[in-house]
Specification:
Elements lengths: L7 E6 L2 E6 L10 H16 L5 E6 L3 E3 L4 H4 L5 H21 L4 E5 L2 E3 L1 H8 L2 E5 L4 E2 L13 H9 L1 H9 L6 H6 L5 E3 L4 H13 L3 H16 L2 H16 L2 H12 L9
Parallel strand pairs: 2-3, 3-5, 4-6, 5-7, 6-8, 7-9
Antiparallel strand pairs: 1-2
Helix pairs in contact: 1-3, 4-5, 5-6, 9-10
Bound molecules: ligand T3D.
């Protein structure tokens, strides 16, 4: 994997763009520079024509341990937190949500605090059988941030999310799979290859339509029914105009499997 100027690595594997946290000696704890690089990496992957799916992963034994607490120090000014969220964390979340391409969080080790939040903001999650999710915020008497309060209840229900955020310690692979927090659990040995294979399945979808689906789901989450249905009509006409729709229809009538191009 090619080393970039920052602790975030970028690698192209076929149609899949890997964005990898690379501070294994610090459990990939997030610095200002990493967050800036992360936003840039998602925006660039969204634009790149050769990218049809994105994997977010971490090097070493952690996926990502959240904010680098040693960079904050023991007694930061309270205003620092809100300002940091606005300047660095929230732009990353927006870049992920606005990226039309499917994003897979490949959680190969512990995902704590904002590391867990970033995994929740991905479209799909897979984890290794040695990984765990740790909400972490409450142990610092902080509210969950980086979108955790938005995403987690939607994924696993309000009651369970509240319990995990306050009383929960580590959420392991069995519980994560059973509750729908992750889509697959793969053995730690060969985890990266299994994640790449999963991402290749995503990359082979009609990815232009996937981008429309992502927008439609986001709209439908918050809009009244009438508005959601109007948006659905508009997007369905756009989906029907794609090359992949034609390919799907041709394959249906030919009784073959469609091959999609993302156009
Ligand atoms: O504006 C804002 O609001 C800022 C945004 C904040 C978002 C956040 O993410 S706040 C939450 C920050 N993260 C945490 O609170 C997680 C803290 N870490 C842990 O809970 C545990 O370390 C882990 C669950 C991640 C891993 O546990 P374990 O037992 O496998 O390892 P360990 O022994 O606790 O940690 C290993 C080392 O990593 C250790 O350093 P040492 O003793 O070997 O020198 C530990 O201090 C260091 N480390 C772990 N997480 C962080 C970290 N160093 C700096 N920042 C970290 N987040």
């Amino acid at each position: 994997m090619a080393k970039q100027a920052t602790d975030v690595l970028i690698e192209q594997r076929g149609a899949v763009r890997w964005i990898v946290f690379n501070r294994p000696e610090a459990m990939n704890a997030l610095t200002d520079v990493m967050l800036e690089a992360l936003e840039r990496a998602f925006r660039e992957a969204a634009r790149a024509e050769d990218v049809r799916a994105i994997v977010l992963a971490g090097r070493g034994r952690a996926f990502q341990a959240g904010q680098d607490l040693s960079a904050l120090g023991e007694a930061p000014e309270p205003e620092t937190y809100g300002a940091l969220l606005k300047k660095r964390y929230h732009p990353v979340l927006r870049a992920m949500r606005e990226t039309p391409k499917p994003i897979l969080a490949a959680v190969g080790g512990v995902a704590a605090g904002a590391g867990m939040s970033l995994a929740l903001a991905a479209d799909f999650r897979v984890m290794s059988d040695r990984a765990a999710f740790v909400p972490a915020f409450f142990k610092l008497a902080l509210v969950p941030d980086t979108g955790m309060a938005y995403f987690l209840p939607r994924l696993v229900g309000f009651g369970r999310a509240l319990e995990w955020m306050t009383l929960g310690g580590r959420i392991g692979p069995d519980e994560a799979l059973r509750t729908g927090l992750v889509h697959r659990v793969f053995p730690a040995d060969g985890f990266e290859s299994a994640a790449q294979a999963f991402a290749e399945t995503l990359a082979a979808l009609p990815t232009k339509t996937f981008g429309m689906l992502k927008r439609l789901l986001q709209k439908a989450e918050a809009a009244p029914l009438g508005e959601a249905l109007a948006y659905e009509r508009m997007l369905q006409s756009a989906a029907a105009a794609t090359e992949d729709h034609r390919r799907g229809m041709t394959a249906f009538f030919a009784k073959t499997e469609p091959t999609f191009t993302g156009r």
